[in-house]
Amino acid sequence: MKIMIIDGQGGRIGKILVEELLKKDLPCSLLVIGTNALATAAMLKGGAQEAATGENPVIFNAPDMDYILGPIGICLANSLNGEITPRMAEAVSSSRARKILIPMSKCNHFVAGTDTSLPLNELIRIAINEIKIV
Predict the structure, then answer these.
(1) What is the pTM assigned to this prediction?
(2) Which of 3, 80, 100, 123 is 20 to 30 A from 116, alpha carbon to alpha carbon?
């Protein structure tokens, strides 16, 4: 099973996703990709072993993943204050991977029906529980 976590800005969501995913000790290969060096470094501090930064790693690796996790903005062009390029959003959206997205109400994105009052750790717990071993 191949899992990719994508995050930008300071990488806080990605770091917590990495930490919680590693606690589950799933038989998987984990690749983290930051939209900037700060986000990548945060996810490495969370325990990730394999990392990359920028647009091309997302485009290159997304088609081969089983799961892609991150804030909802990873599949919306120009989100995360412009850090998600249209090509990155297209690669994530077009991937056959199951996308597990953390609902965030920043950058003018709101998903009706989501409970954005839940604490981030609870949203991440829900997201991690969506990963199924096949």
Answers:
(1) 0.92
(2) 3
List the alpha helices (DSSP H) in 35-106.
37-45, 55-61, 79-82, 86-94
| DSSP, res 83 | T
| Domains of the chain listed by start with CATH number | 2-128 (3.40.50)
Are the C-beta atoms of 6 and 70 separated by less than 8 Å?
yes
**Rounded distance, CA 58 to CA 87, Å?**
9
Task: Report the DSSP beta bridge partners of residue 46.
Answer: none
H/E stretch holding 96 reads none
Closest CA to 128 of 72, 49, 47, 70: 70
* pLDDT computed for residue 107 by the predictor: 63
Q: What is the pLDDT of residue 108?
A: 67
DSSP strands (E only) in the chain: 2-7, 29-34, 51-53, 67-71, 98-102
Per-state percent for the chain, helix, strand, coil, to nearest 5: 45, 20, 40
Q: Give, for 111, the enclosing helix (H) or strand (E).
A: none
Low-confidence ranges of the chain (pLDDT < 70): 105-109, 134
What was the pLDDT predicted at 85?
97
